[in-house]
Hints:
The complex is a heterodimer of chains A (154) and B (338). With 154 residues, chain A is mainly β. Chain A has one helix at residues 2-12; strands spanning 23-36, 42-47, 57-66, 73-80, 85-89, 96-98, 112-114, 120-122, 130-134, 144-153. In chain A, strand 1 (23-36) and strand 2 form a beta hairpin. The model of chain A is unreliable at 1-20 (pLDDT under 50). In chain B, the strands form seven sheets. In chain B, strands 19, 20, 22, 23, 24 and 27 form a six-stranded antiparallel beta sheet that branches. In chain B, strands 7-9-14-11-12 form a five-stranded antiparallel beta sheet, with no helix packed on it. In chain B, strands 8-18-15-10-13 form a five-stranded mixed beta sheet, with no helix packed on it. Strand 4 of chain A pairs antiparallel with strand 3 of chain B.
Amino acid sequence: MRTALFLLFAALLPGQALAANQVALANDVFVERVTTDATGKQRILLEEPKVVVPGDRLVFVLNYRNAGAQPADKFVITNPLPAAVSFADAGDTRPLVSINGGRGWGQLDQLTVALSDGTRRAAQPADVTHIRWAFPKPIPAGGSGKLMFRGVVK
Amino acid sequence: MMNAPVGGAKHQLLPSCSILALLAALTLPMQVQAQVATPPLTRAGTTISNTASATFDTGGGSTTINSNQVDLLVDELLDVTVDSSNPADVPTTPGATGQVLTFSVTNNGNGVENFVLSTIANAGGDNYDPVVTQIYIDNGDGVFDAGTDTLYTPGANDPELDPDESVTVFVVATTPGTVVDGYRGIVSLVAAAVTGTGSPGDSFAGQGEGGGDAVVGSTGADGTDAGAFIVSAATVTLVKSAVVTNPLGTADPIPGATITYTIVATVAGSGSVSGLAITDNIPADTSYVAGSITLGGVAQSDAVDADAGDYNGTRINVALGTVGGGQTRTVTFQTTID
């Protein structure tokens, strides 16, 4: 558990990309490892990936910081999903998603996919190609935060 | 895009405030994942690169910055499954050679892999051990033919399979002559990744396709499935009886008396016999009564023709063809005492 906590704290700390004196965005990827201890209790550890194989569950963590002197308005973070990763969820961060390569955006539960027979089905997490967070308020000078989403290696 | 709804992404001056929120987010189950058909696995050696971007305006117009790029190498997953292709036990007979069980071997991993094949015939749970004589690799038509399929030699031609590729494998066995009807014999085919097998998560450094490691998947990098033979034998029992009648109304075998012979063929067992024929010579000092052959009470002609019976001057013959276990056939014919 100590390792997991350490990694969690590491995930929270600003990465090197935050060193710029304006707005910075740092990207870290972890693998979720589920272990079962002697009492049968499951424990989730986040590890820096050394080995990634299909089926591995990845946690993408984005740290942003406005290190400049001015508020950052119209703040939007976009993460195109790597082709080999299937979107799973974004925790409680409720991002906008695109299921068509970034041309259209919406909440996942509001999007539909056209089927060959002319009907439409509800979009599934695996349809997601891009994830986006659009902030309604400016990021104040010195403000920072964290976003996350999870995916599975296809 | 700015008028779209926005969720719980918050910003604050103290990053540590979000520890609890992140922990909670990370422990949410990913329950929706399984609803979508599984796509092909990412090929071993693929690099997964992730970069995010941020767009904002700090007063000088819209600006876009990129995050750092994170690259992950996808390693080779070693997974294989074996499935018996026989929908039911394969019938065999005592002493039969060249008895075939069919399996398919599928590479469920994400890299090209060779698989070592072996069989287990003595694991128990059955009545006898089939004697495996060869393993053949199918030529693609799914039908066993020793002339066109490839004889398998472990270590020499371990089948190489692409991800998701399957190959049909034939296990050829001999049925011991000592088995009896109803015996069942199980043969399991085992396929194991040449790179290595083990517990899920075990890895073989540097041995994966594309330069990464090879990692044992959920199957343990080996697979097995069982097929079975069922001995389906049949035995034939013939019982012959005779009844004498004479013009005096007695059963005495005097000249001129008629002898009615009855031959009952009984087939026992779960199998069947084919080409069964009943032949009986006409005894000396008797004469065949023309047109007297019956099969199941139905008169048969003496000529070799469409019906089953014939008489050639010295013997009667009734061709019964294939008779299944549990059935009987009754043949009668008559002679007179000279």
